[in-house]
Amino acid sequence: MLKIVKIGLGILTLISLTACSDQDRSTMRPAENNSNHITKSAEKNRTGHSLPTKHNYLKIVVGSPQNDYSGTEVSEVREKFGEPNEISKIDIAGTKRNVTQYSWSTLSPNTHASAITVQFLRNRTVGKAFVASVSDSATTVSANKVARIKSGAKYQSVLKQLGTPNGESVLGIGTPSHELTYLTDEKGHAVNLTFIDNKLVNKNTTKIK
């Protein structure tokens, strides 16, 4: 069923979590396997495609008005990811348009995320996100190290200091932004860092469940 949701800056990850049903949430994390062996059938979704991976997520290009909305086409994303678990309509703050959001909550176990979402306008990608998950293999960053990151810090500089984030969201329309999520402990405490024009403009703590 198509759902209508309204979002603003920096909460694509929240939409990714709330847009999934309780049943979907139960499948977000891979089941434990004592042999750590994943069969080929387990790596396929219901349409026969390989399950979405972080590797393929990173290949998705986010378009914007500045680059004539030249993001990855919806057909290419569906070809790599298969059918989404949910499709919804989202209003983007600062624009008069709503976009179509595809959400995948059944992912490759090695993705280390609870969901992946991609937003489309004119059949082109204008936003994407992967939602951090708490697991034994999740990496963490010292809260003190994150605290030393000051407002105005450059995006690439923060990545160099903190490493690969546990989650992120990228939005190319409205107020184009990039949000990074870092877990600070194994209990799910985390910090969200929001960048506009490659500069840090907001830092807030959160809890990943």
UniProtKB/TrEMBL annotation:
Residues 23-50 are annotated as: Disordered. It comes from the Bacteria. Pfam families: DUF3862. Gene3D superfamilies: 3.30.1450.10. Keywords: Signal. Residues 1-21 form the signal peptide. The keyword Signal applies. The keyword Transmembrane helix does not apply. Coiled coil: none annotated. This is DUF3862 domain-containing protein. It comes from Lentilactobacillus curieae.
